[in-house]
Specification:
With 553 residues, the protein is mostly helical. The chain contains 25 helices and four strands.
């Protein structure tokens, strides 16, 4: 079975040698060079607030706390399990987590290129170039990690199709291998349940194989059994850690409001910024969507049935993933990065399997590659000059600022805020990070948050009916300082950092006046560094200007 597959792919590859994709050696060399010159900088890049928040949850569990009860979290616990594993094995540095992320991505690329083996090195180089080029918002995220079980399941699905073509294959064998695939998809569900949609699409597409259709019930039974086992294992952890009631409360009660709210301000502005950050990779969808639809509808008659089915499976996976991202998920960079990688994989493999329009394919590929290299930070002299500094100094605030693709928060300002809080001898629960991007300080200062509502600002927005509960928890906490980012006022970075006539410990001139009357900006400023502010929380505010958070805010 597997020999037949290898022979088919070798034949397909050899049939095009001397033609469009005879670039394996060059691509391998470029890939090795890319990894050498860009990896130290990648490891020293900052991580986003989501990463630190999942670290906080992992730390809570590792210290005997309870997930969902001690920290409100709207998502499934799979990503926290990963953080617990990584932190238990490799410690608490951001470099360790980024190295793990690179390892996971490398495994994902290996599995995707194994599926499209005729262009293994070409595809690997393009995927790694995209990975090294995107912002820190796309790294160390469960959406990217979700591609690993997906790519593994895709290869298992193909192996199951090949296995079903064997006349002597036993039904028990199909069931067990289906069970293995179901376990892999089920593990992905605990990272993000949206993967069910691509999983269903891939399975339905695989039924275009007549051999598999005749054995569909054994295959389906194994898949469902594996998925149920994965679900049962996760539920068992929730049950035996006494987390299950809190998990169910969040998923069945709180999340109805979370999903319905979805207020992200100026959606057009957010999407346009995301498109700009993803350029030129965002152009992939313009070619990949029509290509995937056409590949599902009809195939080149010169292609073998095996190649045509591979292309259909990849097309179904890409379109289903893109569909659930657009219809069900938030407009965040890390959500939209995986379908771009799948679209890129589809186009590269489809180009390899196409013999027509050779010149057009050359021009399109060369144009895209030139744009990708021009816009990639890894080709910039300033980025390359940081190679030795990253090896010698590690991920310092100054280096993070130079490597960050998103200009806030300022990591040197974050260090200044940390020094101020240390000088105040802050203890557990005495600091509230109102702005999400300040939560890194809970880890760097080894402090426990003041309440279970760690993403205070976001939860006030996304859970409007819970605002009284959140403000009550804030009032009753022993908080001494509340941290905010002046970027919350809709300012540009330069405006948020500006020092006005009132001095460094006052708001910049452009800060909106109406926000100064709202929590936490109504609180006095104890310290300010750039756009980052430390507010002093007054336990007994004056009657003239109550700075306590009220239930009506």
């Amino acid at each position: 079975m597997m020999n037949t597959t290898a022979t088919e792919m070798t034949t397909a590859e050899n049939s095009h040698r001397g033609a469009f994709w005879n670039t394996s050696t060059f691509s391998l060399g470029a890939l090795i060079l890319l990894i050498i010159v860009a990896t130290p900088q990648l490891i020293c890049m900052p991580v986003t607030n989501d990463v630190s928040y999942y670290d906080l949850q992992a730390r809570t569990v590792m210290r005997g706390g309870m997930l969902y009860r001690d920290m409100v979290e709207p998502n499934f616990p799979g990503v926290v399990w990963v953080h617990i594993t990584v932190r238990s094995l490799f410690g608490w540095s951001t470099e360790a987590l980024r190295a793990f992320d690179l390892f996971v991505f490398s495994l994902t690329v290996f599995l995707l290129t194994r599926f499209a083996s005729g262009v293994r090195f070409q595809l690997a180089f393009l995927l790694f170039l995209a990975y090294y080029s995107v912002s820190e918002w796309c790294h160390v995220q469960r959406d990217l990690w979700l591609l690993l079980p997906t790519a593994a399941a895709l290869n298992l699905r193909w192996a199951q199709i090949q296995r079903s073509a064997q006349a002597a294959v036993a039904g028990k064998t199909l069931f067990l291998y289906g069970l293995l695939e179901g376990l892999v998809w089920g593990a992905g569900v605990w990272l993000k349940p949206h993967v069910v949609i691509p999983a269903l699409a891939v399975w339905l597409c695989s039924l275009t194989s007549p051999d598999l259709r005749t054995k569909v019930w054994k295959d389906l039974g194994g898949l469902l059994t594996g998925g149920l086992i994965a679900g049962a294992l996760g539920l068992s952890w929730l049950y035996f850690t006494q987390t299950l009631p809190w998990f169910l409360e969040i998923q069945l009660d709180w999340n109805r409001e979370y999903l319905a709210e979805g207020n992200f301000g100026n959606l057009r502005y957010i999407v346009l910024n995301m498109v700009a950050r993803f350029f030129p990779y965002i152009l992939i969808h313009l070619a990949a969507v029509p290509a995937a639809i056409l590949l599902l509808i009809r195939q080149d008659s010169q292609r073998s049935a095996q190649t045509a089915l591979r292309l259909r499976l990849l097309s179904a996976l890409y379109l289903a993933w893109l569909l659930q991202v657009v219809l069900l998920q938030h407009p965040f960079d890390y959500v939209h990065f995986p379908p771009l990688l799948l679209g890129l994989s589809l186009l590269v493999y489809a180009f390899h399997c196409t013999r027509r329009a050779r010149l057009t394919r050359w021009l399109l590929t060369a144009s895209f590659l030139v744009m990708a290299l021009i816009y990639s930070p890894v080709t910039k002299p300033a980025y390359l000059r940081l190679w030795s500094a990253c090896l010698e100094q590690g991920s310092t605030g100054a280096i993070r600022n130079q490597l960050a693709r998103i200009p806030y928060p300022d990591w040197e300002d974050m260090e200044h805020v940390a020094e101020f809080l240390k000088s105040q001898q802050t203890q557990d629960r005495e600091v509230t990070c109102f702005s999400n991007d300040m939560v890194h300080l809970y880890l760097s200062l080894d402090l426990e948050p003041s309440t279970r509502f760690v993403y205070t600002q976001s939860y006030i927005e996304f859970y409007p009916s819970r605002r009284p509960l959140i403000f009550k928890a804030l009032r009753e906490s022993p908080q001494r300082f509340v941290l905010s980012n002046l970027m919350a006022g809709g300012l540009l970075v330069s405006q948020a950092k500006e020092i006005g006539p009132e001095g460094p410990n006052a708001y910049p001139p452009a800060f909106p006046e109406h926000l100064k009357a709202k929590f936490p900006f109504s609180l006095p400023i104890a310290f300010r560094s750039g756009s980052l502010v430390v507010h002093h929380y007054q336990e007994q505010p004056s009657k003239e200007s109550s700075t306590k958070p009220s239930d009506k805010q």
